[in-house]
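Sequence in, structure out.
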Amino acid sequence: MARHRKCAVPVPLDRARRRLAAALTAVSALGATFLAVAVTPAAPPAPDRTPAATTSDLAQASGK
């Protein structure tokens, strides 16, 4: 019977792949965060909405 062996992947190569994956994940998360903050929305706010400067804390506290 033939034995199935695990692929012979050198440990440093595996470690480098994991580090690359972690680095790409971190860079993409930071890039998405930067774009969300820096880019202005394409559409203006809806006319039936109040400006974003006010908060909803008062409405939540009063139970309305």
